[in-house]
Specification:
By secondary structure, the protein is an all-alpha fold. The chain folds into 2 domains: about 100 residues, no CATH class; about 30 residues. The protein has 9 helices and no strands.
């Protein structure tokens, strides 16, 4: 709380704020970071293993192995979401499960599952993009800005 906001509080409110702050549990930031790194890394290792399977066992080209690897990771994340496993992993690992594409798949599947009683169109179809819609909009907008900057810099001869 800033000093300006603190000055607006009564002395009793300031005393309570200090009391509450002293008793607030400390967050295990280092442990949370390590768990996120571990689980996010394991998801990436799984993705690399799936990629290598398509690349070397099924003899896909490097470029052709990427799409089925991504689809397989998304499928596995949805299956784990349906059975509640992904949510338990996410509670333990935090951001480690949210960052890879599996986190995006989990967010969409969880929203669809939550609203399935409202029907396929208004429930599943409409609500599954609750979080994904924002991600898609800002992703497309960011890509547009980056492309605009790159084109401008290329026209100026900088890159």
């Amino acid at each position: 709380m800033s000093n300006k906001q603190k000055k607006k509080l009564t002395p009793v409110q300031q005393q309570y704020h200090s009391f509450a702050k002293e008793r607030e549990p400390r967050r295990p930031v280092l442990a949370n970071c390590l768990r996120a790194f571990l689980v996010g890394g394991l998801i990436c290792i799984l993705g690399q293993g799936i990629f290598d399977f398509f690349r070397y066992v099924l003899d896909f080209s490097e470029k052709a192995a990427i799409n089925p690897m991504v689809v397989t990771l998304i499928f596995l994340a949805i299956i784990l979401t349906v059975y509640g496993v992904y949510d338990k992993m996410a509670q333990w690992a935090g951001a480690g499960t949210a960052v890879p594409i599996t986190g995006f798949a989990n967010a969409m599947a969880a929203a669809a599952i939550e609203h399935r009683t409202e029907g396929f169109v208004l429930g599943v179809g409409g609500k599954m993009f609750k979080l994904a819609g924002a991600v898609i909009v800002f992703g497309v907008f960011s890509a547009f800005i980056v492309a605009l900057l790159k084109t401008t810099l290329a026209m100026l001869g900088v890159i």
